[in-house]
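Quick one: structure for this chain?
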Amino acid sequence: MGRAANSRVGLIALVACGALVGAPQAGEARRGAAVAALTNDGRPNVQSAAAIAIDAKTGELLYAKNPDKVRAIASTGKIFVAMVARRKGIDLNALTRISDVDAKYAKGGSRTRLVVGHKFRNQDLLRAMLIASDNRAPTAIGRAVGLSPKQLIKELNVLAKELGLKKTKFTDPSGLNGNTSTAREMAKALAVAMKDPFLAELMGTKDTTIRSVARKPHAIPYRNTNRSLHTGRYDVLGGKTGFTDPAGYCLLIAAKFGDRPVNMAFLGAGEKLTRFGDFGRVANWMKSKPSSK
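Got it. Here's what it folds into:
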């Protein structure tokens, strides 16, 4: 066996050894150091800048890390757009056309699949927004209930005030250029959104396909950006992801542990997968804790 072959064998052996001792997942560690599941005091080793877990039945605070620190929330704020639309009585079967205004407010965000000039059922726009976080959907949904972008922003702030969320502020429909809150207030907002059966269903949908209404309609498949929904390791009920440079990687997630439903928020993770790793660490810790009676 030549020197090159020996080098390849040695590399394979090193990789295998790393796998056996628990090599870190991508985005879950830096410089090869695995993220421990627990801290020295036995609590979840959450890497996100701010996080919280709240018992949805009792309101009991189960875990917190900087829960009241005001931070950018990116696309997680889109759950407020959905709640405003539902409160305004949005016609789920009516059609709304994607306009240049929607394209303008989505500029700078991730790739959109809602083509300007195409019409979609409002329920499908809600799917596009909550399942895949399409940035052209919020202003289109606002228009479907008679709100201009500025009026929609105003209604988002009104809703936050009605919910008693004093630190939640909206300046942008999609969250690309503003919007701030705290982990505690976002977990509370998620709890309200999850009480709407239709929104809860959307946020818990793994995959869906929507179709434009046109002379030549086209199908758009979407996959939920919440990776924790796809693993099957936990009883995930729903949630919403978000990312901008100022916000970092964010995750709102509702899950159930036995008979205990829990609402969680993770804000400001430094890597894409870290927020899901944080959820897993809190989830495993939660599974070892007895429910309050």
